[in-house]
């Protein structure tokens, strides 16, 4: 029992944990910076958002910790239930009286300050579901028809529900993650091409149907043409980035965050980072996500089963796709979609779910080490592996989970 | 399952991610380095503003500290029309506060394509604050100041005006604009998107302007204007001016003009009323000029007080024949009597004794032909014929005040020299600037005290029995002065008009030790009388009657 505690985690695990904690620290600082002025002006002490961010971050870290020990075990057990619940919640959001409408979008559920966003849960559920399905039935993915029924139908319906909230950003993240998963799963390139093409057409149709999305599309091409209207947010974001220059104005010095920049603490926090920390700051941030991509995919490569491999790749893609979509949006490389910057943006559900994903990823990454260190046979049959996993993780957690949790709380 | 395919695909996925991250980093560098200057400029455009902080304009007070011109905080109210969501509602709310017709405001607000429009300027701060409190989007207030003249009409032509941009345009406001204005501050403001300042730097602080304390006395000024108003009512002249001076210092105690104007509403006054006639009106002085001819002759010892002249009814000078204003026969008069009775023939004979050359130098010594240098803008220099332009008949009209022209202030300052014992001083209006006393100029002696006294004594005769203004009397005070009734030159014919006159009076009190000098000039009196002794002299008496006790000058 004492031996595993002293074991060294594999490098992927360390990198993932380091990058995540760095991003969280940066997120805390930037959320505070981006919100302190406006919330102080609104009549608070300026720390409202910081406290919320830290609270959800703490919850998220707890979830991450639990899942980094028992994630796979739980995932296998609860994937169908999670998917069903996620669907139920997505439908519930549509119902007046349950769903909360903010700025014309019905994305939230909950009471008072405790609101949460079912679409975030759906992201995780989809990855879990697809990894399981693709690993269990590898034959189905050789053809388009095989993929569509039932997997892509499930994904499609989920995307449609989310996109109609409207939350095109999250739908796109799910779409890209699905693509990444299919790619890693080994879907033939011909099939990939067909699917990518159809998806692109669908997205275009969806984007053009709604006038405000059309405006976003045209304003993306030249945001300065309508700097006071549809291009406003993009332009203000770019002004913030440009004001920062190479080294930034210094932490807390952003001017754009005070009412110029909409969503400065959530979707557009990258612009505040650019203004205060400069191009250097943005590159550092991108490097942290690059580190997650590297370590996450490395963990996928070293995973012991196809399921774990797909899950690791899927979870990594989920985080990285969201990070890329957000940075591209803010930098003006993609039309406005509106997804939070993973781990950094203030968003209760987003942080919790992303940290849960990271927990699962860490779980997979750490198992690579166990395999190297403690387990002699490098290859097992597929059937026997889950049993071995379950046995080991069960032993570990029974004794350690509580202790570690208690200690952490005491230290904090 | 084919693990190696997945391994390869993972590598491919990582490659894709790397390319995308690189693209993001490249784009960030593009925006943050290459485009940074443009974007910083855009940021500065929306975030930074250079604001002029208007310096507080100095207050103008009278010699006792009565406020004559003060600056009050105010604001310009402007609109960015396309930002105003409901122009009709906004206009309805703004109209009463701006005191403008609702229709006018609505018209300005509905010019949607325009990015800026002043709705009202110099709105008093209290009302401007109410505009701010309305919180209408697209309506802005810019602090400025508003010049107010608490006494409305008082000395309006002397004080002058300040334009909407805070620059003095006329009068003392113009003459001392630099001093009164101070120096506007420059403020650099970083604003958030709601327009609230989040960082303020003052690279240049505003320097308040100097306060000016005038030599004017609001009490005397008030009375002078009242008396001129009465003249205006009675004689319906084109204009009238009175100057009250302390002859010893040159301090102008009052400077009144009729018609009067409201300094707070100069827009409603005709241009002729706004000008300060004391310095800008040029006229032939007529008889009021005679004492200077006599003073010159006395100083040159060509005559004494008692030199007897045998005067014919008329006198021939070259091609001209000059008679008296009231025809008479042959008389014998002393120098004193000539002045008291304002004899044209006698004065010309005195002038002839003096000779053209000496006469010319005496005219110039008394300051005629050049501005007095009083602290007012646009002072005329009058017109004095150069000696080489004299014709044969010149000495037949110049000694009696025809053919040269003067301003009322020139005449007042020349009379002051006679009153104060012979020293010509620059008349002055500024007693203190920014708390520091402005010293009176030393002046220049033009005649001896003895000559001055002799002329004063002669001028007593004007207001004594047999003089041209014998009705002018104030119990307990001896008075002295000189009347003037001058034909105006008809601009069309170039000859003297038979119907248009300038009636004037210049005098001082007490006659033996003058402490008060008063000149009154009435341009084209109508309605009965044209004579200086009847139109202007009573005004002198009224002013003196008020001012002597007011200034604490004891009767004897």
UniProtKB/TrEMBL annotation, chain A:
The keyword Ribonucleoprotein does not apply. Its EC number is 2.4.99.28. The keyword rRNA processing does not apply. It is found in: Cell membrane. It catalyses: [GlcNAc-(1->4)-Mur2Ac(oyl-L-Ala-gamma-D-Glu-L-Lys-D-Ala-D-Ala)](n)-di-trans,octa-cis-undecaprenyl diphosphate + beta-D-GlcNAc-(1->4)-Mur2Ac(oyl-L-Ala-gamma-D-Glu-L-Lys-D-Ala-D-Ala)-di-trans,octa-cis-undecaprenyl diphosphate = [GlcNAc-(1->4)-Mur2Ac(oyl-L-Ala-gamma-D-Glu-L-Lys-D-Ala-D-Ala)](n+1)-di-trans,octa-cis-undecaprenyl diphosphate + di-trans,octa-cis-undecaprenyl diphosphate + H(+). Residues 386-398 have a biased composition (Basic and acidic residues). Belongs to the SEDS family. FtsW subfamily. This is Probable peptidoglycan glycosyltransferase FtsW. It comes from Svornostia abyssi. The lineage of its organism: Bacteria, Bacillati, Actinomycetota, Thermoleophilia, Solirubrobacterales.
UniProtKB/TrEMBL annotation, chain B:
Residues 241-544 form the Penicillin-binding protein transpeptidase domain. InterPro entries: Beta-lactam/transpept (IPR050515), Beta-lactam/transpept-like (IPR012338), PBP_dimer (IPR005311), PBP_dimer_sf (IPR036138), PCN-bd_Tpept (IPR001460). Gene3D superfamilies: 3.30.450.330, DD-peptidase/beta-lactamase superfamily, Penicillin-binding protein 2a (Domain 2). Keywords: Membrane. SUPFAM superfamilies: beta-lactamase/transpeptidase-like, Penicillin binding protein dimerisation domain. Belongs to the transpeptidase family. This is Penicillin-binding protein 2. It holds the Pfam family PBP_dimer. PANTHER family: PEPTIDOGLYCAN D,D-TRANSPEPTIDASE, PEPTIDOGLYCAN D,D-TRANSPEPTIDASE FTSI. It is found in: Membrane. Residues 53-198 form the Penicillin-binding protein dimerisation domain.
């Amino acid at each position: 029992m004492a031996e595993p505690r002293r074991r060294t985690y594999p490098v992927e695990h360390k990198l993932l944990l380091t990058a995540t904690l760095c991003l969280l620290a940066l997120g805390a600082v930037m959320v505070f910076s981006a919100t302190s002025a406006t919330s102080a002006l609104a009549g608070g002490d300026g720390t409202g958002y910081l406290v919320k961010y830290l609270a959800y971050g703490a919850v998220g870290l707890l979830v991450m910790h639990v899942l980094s020990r028992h994630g796979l075990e739980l995932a296998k057990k609860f994937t169908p239930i999670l998917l069903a619940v996620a669907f139920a919640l997505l439908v519930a959001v549509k119902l007046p009286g349950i769903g909360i409408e903010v700025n014309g979008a019905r994305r939230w559920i909950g009471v008072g300050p405790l609101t949460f966003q079912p679409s975030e849960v759906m992201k995780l559920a989809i990855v879990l579901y697809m990894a399981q399905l693709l690993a269990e039935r590898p034959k189905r993915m050789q053809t388009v028809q095989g993929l569509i029924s039932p997997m892509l139908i499930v994904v499609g319906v989920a995307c449609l529900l989310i996109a109609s909230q409207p939350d095109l950003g999250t739908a796109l993240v799910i779409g890209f993650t699905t693509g990444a998963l299919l790619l890693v799963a080994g879907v033939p390139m011909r099939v990939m091409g067909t699917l990518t093409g159809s998806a692109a057409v669908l997205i275009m149709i969806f984007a053009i149907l709604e006038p405000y999305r059309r405006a976003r599309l045209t304003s993306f091409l030249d945001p300065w043409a309508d700097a006071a209207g549809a291009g406003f947010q993009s332009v203000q974001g770019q002004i913030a980035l440009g004001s920062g220059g190479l080294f930034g104005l210094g932490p807390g010095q952003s001017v754009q965050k005070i009412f110029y920049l909409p969503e400065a603490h959530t979707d557009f926090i990258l612009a505040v980072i650019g203004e205060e920390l400069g191009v250097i700051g943005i590159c550092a941030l991108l490097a942290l996500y690059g580190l997650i991509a590297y370590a996450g995919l490395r963990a996928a490569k070293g995973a012991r089963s196809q399921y774990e491999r797909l899950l690791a790749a899927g979870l990594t893609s989920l985080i990285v796709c969201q990070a890329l979509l957000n940075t591209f949006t803010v930098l003006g490389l993609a039309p406005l979609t509106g997804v939070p910057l993973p781990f950094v943006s203030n968003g209760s559900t987003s942080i919790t779910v992303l940290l849960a994903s990271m927990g699962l990823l860490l779980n997979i990454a750490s198992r690579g080490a166990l395999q190297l260190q403690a387990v002699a046979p490098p290859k097992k049959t597929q059937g026997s592996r889950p049993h071995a996993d379950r046995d080991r993780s069960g032993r570990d957690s029974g004794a350690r989970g509580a202790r570690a949790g208690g200690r952490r709380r005491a230290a904090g | 399952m084919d693990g190696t395919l997945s391994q390869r695909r993972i590598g491919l996925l990582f490659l894709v991610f790397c390319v995308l991250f690189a693209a993001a980093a490249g784009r960030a560098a593009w925006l943050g380095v290459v485009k940074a200057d443009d974007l910083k400029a855009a940021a500065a455009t929306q975030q930074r503003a250079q604001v002029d902080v208007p310096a507080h304009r100095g207050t103008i007070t009278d010699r006792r500290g009565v406020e004559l011109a003060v600056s009050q905080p105010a604001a310009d109210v402007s609109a960015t029309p396309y930002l105003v969501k409901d122009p009709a509602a906004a206009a309805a709310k703004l109209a009463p506060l701006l005191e403008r017709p609702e229709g006018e405001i609505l018209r300005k607000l509905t010019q949607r394509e325009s990015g800026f429009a002043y709705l009202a300027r110099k709105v008093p701060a209290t009302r401007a604050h109410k505009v701010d409190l309305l919180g209408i989007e697209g309506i802005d207030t810019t602090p400025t100041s508003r010049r107010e003249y608490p006494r409305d009409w008082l000395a309006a032509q002397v004080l002058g005006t300040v334009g909407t941009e805070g620059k003095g345009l006329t009068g003392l406001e113009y003459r001392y604009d630099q001093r009164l204005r101070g120096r506007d501050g420059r403020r650099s403001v970083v604003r958030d998107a709601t327009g609230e300042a989040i960082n303020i730097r003052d690279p240049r602080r505003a320097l308040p302007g100097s306060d000016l304390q005038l030599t004017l006395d609001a009490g005397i000024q008030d009375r002078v204007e009242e008396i001129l108003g009465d003249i205006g009512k009675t004689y319906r002249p084109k204009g009238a001016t009175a100057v009250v001076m302390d002859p010893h210092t040159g301090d102008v105690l009052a400077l009144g003009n009729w018609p009067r104007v409201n300094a707070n509403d100069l827009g409603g006054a005709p241009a002729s009323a706004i000008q300060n006639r004391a310095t800008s009106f040029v006229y032939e002085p007529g008889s009021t000029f005679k004492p200077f001819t006599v003073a010159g002759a006395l100083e040159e010892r060509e005559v004494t007080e008692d030199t007897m002249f045998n005067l014919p009814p008329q006198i021939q000078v070259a091609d001209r024949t000059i008679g008296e204003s009231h025809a008479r026969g042959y008389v014998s008069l002393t120098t004193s009597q000539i002045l008291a009775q304002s004899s044209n023939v006698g004065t010309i004979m005195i002038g002839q004794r003096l000779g053209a050359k000496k006469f010319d130098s005496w005219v110039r010594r008394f300051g005629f032909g050049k501005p007095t240098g009083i602290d007012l803008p646009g002072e005329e220099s009058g017109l004095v014929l150069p000696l080489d332009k004299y014709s044969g008949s010149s000495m037949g009209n110049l000694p009696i005040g025809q053919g040269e022209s003067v301003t009322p202030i020139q005449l007042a300052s020349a009379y002051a020299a006679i009153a104060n014992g012979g020293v010509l001083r620059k008349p002055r209006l500024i007693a203190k600037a920014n708390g520091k006393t402005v010293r009176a100029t030393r002046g220049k002696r033009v005649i001896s005290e003895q000559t001055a006294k002799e002329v004063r004594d002669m001028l007593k005769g004007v207001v004594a029995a047999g003089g041209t203004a014998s009705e002018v009397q104030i119990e307990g005070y001896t008075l002295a002065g000189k009347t003037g009734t001058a034909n105006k030159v008809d601009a069309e014919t170039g000859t003297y008009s038979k119907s248009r006159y300038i009636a004037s009076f210049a005098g001082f009190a007490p006659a033996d030790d003058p402490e008060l000098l008063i000149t009154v000039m009435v341009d084209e009196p109508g309605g009965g009388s044209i004579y200086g002794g009847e139109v202007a002299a009573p005004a002198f008496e009224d002013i003196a009657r008020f001012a002597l006790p007011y200034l604490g000058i004891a009767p004897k």
